[in-house]
Structures are given as C-alpha cells and as structure tokens.
Amino acid sequence: MEWNSEAGRVRGVILKKVVSDVRFKGYVHHASRNDPQYFIQSDKTDHVAIHKGRALNLVRSRAAGKRKKSAKH
User: Fold this and answer.
1) Dihedral of CA 65/58/5/14: which sign?
2) What is the mean pLDDT of each run of 10 residues along the chain (73 residues)?
3) Rg of the chain over CA atoms, in angstroms?
4) In 3D, which of 43, 35, 55, 54 has the Cα closest to residue 13?
5) pTM of this prediction?
C-alpha cells in the first residue's frame, strides 16, 4: 500500500489502529474512536510512524492501474 502523509508519499503497512491517547517517541498522540491514529511501518526503511487517519489517503499503485487498463483490451 502507498500512503500520502505529512512527510510525503510512503509505501508500507498499517501495524495498528489506535483509539485512545498513546505516548510515542516522547510525545502524547491524541486519538479516539472518532479520530483514530495509525502506526505505519515503511517498507523501504522499516521506520515506524504514527499518523491521524484523516492525514492518510490510500493511493492506487501505478502497476494496478496498468493491469486494469490492459485487461480491457
């Protein structure tokens, strides 16, 4: 999966959905059921970051788009 985040485009996986306040890297990240946050691990660097759900967007990969187009022919 690829995600757009505050830091730019990241390819990785969601490790955990957080629905209550959590301390991570010295900071308290506020989360709730209505405004969750997600731990995401980068495929490239294995770096783990936390982001609010509203800051993340699923981005369709180019390869998936090409497969769909060629399937129409």
Assistant:
1) negative
2) 71 91 95 94 89 76 54 52
3) 15
4) 43
5) 0.70
Burial of 3 by CB count in 10 Å (0-12 exposed, 13-18 middle, 19+ buried)? buried
Of residues 51, 39, 50, the one with CA closest to residue 13: 39
Alpha helices by DSSP H, listed for 1-73, are: 62-71
Are the beta carbons of 23 and 41 closer than 8 angstroms? no
2 forms bridges with which residues in the sheet? 11, 59
Burial (Cβ within 10 Å: 0-12, 13-18, ≥19) of residue 20: exposed
